[in-house]
Design goal:
Residues 7-116 form the Acyl-CoA dehydrogenase/oxidase N-terminal domain. Residues 225-373 form the Acyl-CoA dehydrogenase/oxidase C-terminal domain. With 380 residues, this protein is of the alpha+beta class. It has 3 domains: 7-115, Acyl-CoA dehydrogenase/oxidase, N-terminal domain (Butyryl-Coa Dehydrogenase, subunit A, domain 1, Orthogonal Bundle); 120-226, Butyryl-CoA Dehydrogenase, subunit A, domain 2; 233-377, Butyryl-CoA Dehydrogenase, subunit A, domain 3 (Up-down Bundle). Helix content is 54%, strand content 16%. It has 10 helices and 10 strands. It has helices spanning 3-34, 39-47, 66-79, 81-100, 103-114, 226-262, 274-303, 308-333, 345-353, 362-376; strands spanning 120-123, 139-143, 146-157, 164-172, 175-182, 188-190, 204-215, 219-220, 264-265, 268-269. It has a 4-stranded mixed β-sheet. Strand 9 (264-265) and strand 10 (268-269) form a beta hairpin. The chain is globular, with a radius of gyration of 21 Å.
């Protein structure tokens, strides 16, 4: 980046950080405790025009670059990972519409989502198909003027809060399409709210499709190329999950620094103890290394570099593994207090775990990274 662009992104980070501290963090514990939607935080996001960061200006968004999106997710996640998740899933639910959808479909869906007046979700995972995307069983059958969708999608974020859902379904042998379903479409229903370890305020439920009719207008691009469409979007989405992991780790680190500076034992601040300082140093290194790799991945993605896919997998892997380590150490630094809900680090540790699982488990990320390494070495 140029110096001027660095200043722009630094100023943007500062503004989102202030917003997160003033209007998001105060509600994070209550959202988690009551497993409720983060209404106050979401309104703050909408008021700050952050809901449309990933959407182009002609569709009501701000057309921000990927780095700005990453910064926003990172800073919001440091205060409340649930709120960051609602935001980035809205972007994920509209990404294939932006890249492959018709102008008419874009105008139908995107402006309301960009303004924060509508929510979106992405329906990929199924009861028997998680990492094995090719094994999904939801089908789309062509009929007069549209398609009939039948199947069940599992662990769908923003369901049933969202209005629009991008559904990947089989349209034939080795053929898949992306179909945009509205919450009011006949044949669409939702399962019960999932009771989760973390991200407890993020609405999550099954999306059930029982002969749900989707008109041709709401088919994204070619109904045989949906699998390729979603694969093309994974670089950006994995960078955003990495940012989310980095953000919650940074939030836990900042809380641990403040606590250990104030907590006194044996007549002095525990921040003076060498064992404490050793843990803090390890946490700081994990944060810095994860951030450096993530920002390198973002630069490669934005440049369309052939190594972007492997770097995005590396960033998602490192940021999420480091987030789990940093948040766990933060709980340890709080001692017994870290095990209580009176302090934020136990929530942050619970929230961090999912970043190692969704958007491709870290075991899958390791396979992708190894595959890329062998390809560079010229080994099949």
């Amino acid at each position: 980046m140029t110096d001027s662009m660095s200043d722009v992104h630094a100023d943007f980070r500062a503004s989102v950080r202030r917003l997160a501290a003033d209007r998001i963090a105060p509600y994070a514990a209550d959202v988690d405790e009551k497993e409720r939607f983060p209404d106050e935080a979401w309104q703050a996001v909408v008021d700050a025009d952050l809901a449309g960061l990933a959407h182009p200006e002609h569709l009501g968004g701000s057309g921000a670059d990927l780095l700005s999106q990453v910064i926003a997710v990172e800073e919001i996640a440091a205060a409340c990972m649930t709120t960051s998740h609602v935001l980035l899933v809205n972007w994920a639910g509209t990404c294939t519409i932006l890249s492959e959808g018709s102008a008419e479909l874009q105008k139908l869906v995107v402006p309301e989502v960009a303004a924060g007046r509508a929510g979106a979700g992405w329906c990929l995972t199924e009861p028997t198909a998680g990492s094995d995307v090719a094994g999904l069983t939801t089908t789309a059958t062509e009929t007069g003027g549209g398609w009939l969708l039948t199947g069940r999608k599992r662990f769908i974020s923003n369901a049933p809060w969202g209005d629009w859902y991008a559904v990947l379904a089989k349209t034939g042998e080795s053929r898949h399409g992306v179909f945009i379903v509205h919450r009011d479409d006949p044949g669409l229903s939702f399962g019960p709210h999932e009771r989760k370890m973390g991200l407890r305020g993020s609405p999550t439920a099954d999306v059930i499709l029982d002969g749900c009719f989707v008109p041709d207008l709401r088919v994204v691009g070619d109904p045989a190329e949906g699998y390729r469409y979603i694969m093309a979007e994974l670089n950006g989405s994995r960078a955003l999950i990495a940012a989310q992991a980095l953000g919650v780790a940074q939030g836990a680190f900042d809380a641990a620094l403040a606590y250990t500076s104030e907590r006194a034992q044996f007549g002095q601040s525990i921040s003076r103890f060498q064992m404490i300082r050793g843990m803090v140093a390890d946490m700081a290194v994990r944060l810095a290394s994860a951030r450096a790799l993530l920002y390198e991945a973002v630069a490669l993605i934005e440049a369309g570099h052939p190594e972007a896919r492997a770097r995005a997998s590396m960033a998602k892997l490192l940021c999420s593994d480091n987030a789990m380590s940093v948040t766990t150490d933060a709980v340890q630094l709080f001692g017994g207090y870290g095990f209580t809900r009176d302090y934020p680090v136990e929530r942050m540790m619970r929230d961090a775990k999912i970043t190692q699982i969704y958007e491709g488990t870290n075991q899958i990320q390791r396979l992708l990274v190894a595959k890329a390494a062998y390809a560079v070495a010229g080994v099949a």
